[in-house]
Amino acid sequence: MKTVTEQNFEIIIKDCFQTILKPLGFKKKGNNFYRQLQDLGQIINVQKSSLYSKDHISFTINTGLFIPEYWLTFYTYHNGTIPDYPTEPICAIRQRIGKLKYNIDKWFDLDPSTDIAALKNETIDNILNHILPYFEKAKTKADIIQLLQDENTPLDKFGRLIIFGEYNQLEKAQVEYDRLKQDKYTFANMKSTLFEYRDKYKLVD
């Protein structure tokens, strides 16, 4: 039998996420909600802390922007078939709600003493006023190019270079390549990978 805490967590998933996101085209799989757009995909992941118990659940909210061209280039363990339901960890651009709203790595605690109504209201606010507006600014390739102009947008080491290259933004790819080449750690430890992307996008030294 599920505890009150487990039942309340399920209520939050249903009332705060599924009820809002399903009409917007998001498909649910576990605690993940994915929407496929023409150029990219958007995912919201509700992540439980590994330290949770049946009576105490901590969770946070992750977002991801899945860019097919990036995935096909950066990862090598596939046969060229893009996944129908990507997961947040393989997204090119990943943001937690703490970054989008709180300026800290924000986790939410749920136990028998939690004011569930207040937590639901906060969660709904997070979705409606922070996550969905962020997604509205990241719906097309042009949006992604604009997003990458912000140096605070978190990506893997070669994320900008790959996306600019795959989107045929070769001047921007050249600038990013030059920046990476000047990075001592990258040049010392990842030079061969950097040069592979240089050759792939026909950049110059």
Segments where pLDDT lies below 50 for 5+ residues?
none
Order of helices and strands: HEEEEHEHEHHHHHH
Percentage of helical residues? 40-55%
Q: Radius of gyration in whole Å, from Cα?
A: 19 Å
Q: How many domains make up the 3D coordinates?
A: 2
Described by strand count, sense and barrel closure, the largest sheet is: 6 strands, antiparallel
Q: Which word captures the global form?
A: elongated
Tell how many strands the DSSP assignment holds. 6
Number of helices: 9
- Cα distance spanning the termini: 64 Å
Note the beta-strand portion.
15-25%
3D architecture notes:
With about 200 residues, the protein is an alpha+beta fold. The chain folds into 2 domains: about 140 residues, no CATH class; about 45 residues, no CATH class. Helices cover about 45% and strands about 15% of the residues. Strand 3 and strand 4 form a beta hairpin. Helix 2 packs across helix 6 and helix 6 packs antiparallel against helix 7. The longest helix is centred in the middle third of the chain and has 21 residues.
Task: Compose a concise summary of this entry.
This protein has helices at residues 4-21, 68-74, 97-102, 116-136, 141-147, 159-166, 170-182, 184-189, 191-200; strands spanning 27-29, 32-36, 41-48, 57-66, 93-96, 108-110. With 205 residues, it is of the alpha+beta class. Helix 1 (4-21) packs parallel to helix 4, helix 2 crosses helix 6 (159-166) and helix 6 (159-166) packs antiparallel against helix 7.
